[in-house]
Structure formats: structure tokens, C-alpha cells
Amino acid sequence: MTMADRKNPENVFHVVIDGELDLHTFNPSELGTLVDEYIDACREKGIYNIRIIHGKGTGALRRSVHKLLERNRFVINFGIDGGRSGWGVTTATLQKN
User: Fold this and answer.
1) 63 vs 82, which has greater pLDDT?
2) Cα 21–1–86 angle (5° rounding)?
3) Which of 23, 56, 62, 89 lies at a CB distance of 3.0 to 4.6 Å from 81, suitable for a disulfide?
4) CA dist 49 to 8, 11, 29, 30, Å?
5) Domain harbouring 16, CATH code
């Protein structure tokens, strides 16, 4: 997936669609469209279980991700990863096409 920075169209970045989105390389302001676009791209590729890496930090980014997932009509359920990643990763199950 290629996405353009809305403030500077010359800035383009590539996101690998493999079911795991690492938010460490993005600005929080990009989050609003990024998560929804990533979900759409995963569903197009037949990926219905995703991981969003937001880190532990203060929890603000995690809360933002969860709000976006709550609003996305293709998210069946989501929660904190119970594995070694702990509360730095959220997993989600997406509705099949």
C-alpha cells in the first residue's frame, strides 16, 4: 500500500500488507485514515486477523487505536494481545468479504 502525506504530496511511504501494522514510524496525526485504510487493504488480501503495534507508552496511542477499531464497521472484535507483546499490541478480527 502506498500512502501520500496530505500536507506534502511528494512524501510517499509504503506499508507492507501482511496483517501487522507497526505504528512506531507514523505520526499520531496520520492515525485516523491509516488504520481504516490498512483494514481495507488487509480485507482485500484475505487477511482477517491483524495486529496493530502501538507500544506501551502512556496508553494514549492504544486508546486512539481502540476508538478507531470501535468505529470501523469491519472489525468484529479486538483486544490487547495476550502474548509476549502484552499491552503494546492490539489484535483484531475482521469481517470476511
Assistant:
1) 63
2) 5
3) 89
4) 32, 29, 25, 22
5) 3.30.1370.110
Grid coordinates given for 51: 495486529
Q: Which of the residue ranges 32-41, 74-83, 84-93 would you say has the lowest mean pLDDT? A: 84-93
Instruction: Locate 73 and state its grid cell.
Output: 464497521
Backbone angles phi, psi at 68, to 5 degrees: -65, -40
Residue 97 CA to residue 84 CA, distance in Å, equals: 30
pLDDT of 83 strictly over 60: yes
CA separation for the pair 77, 70 (Å, rounded): 8
**Number of domains, the chain:** 1
Mean pLDDT of 1-7: 48
**Boundaries of domain holding 36:** 2-94
Bridging pattern class, strands 49-53 and 20-22: parallel
- Report residue 57 as a C-alpha cell: 507508552
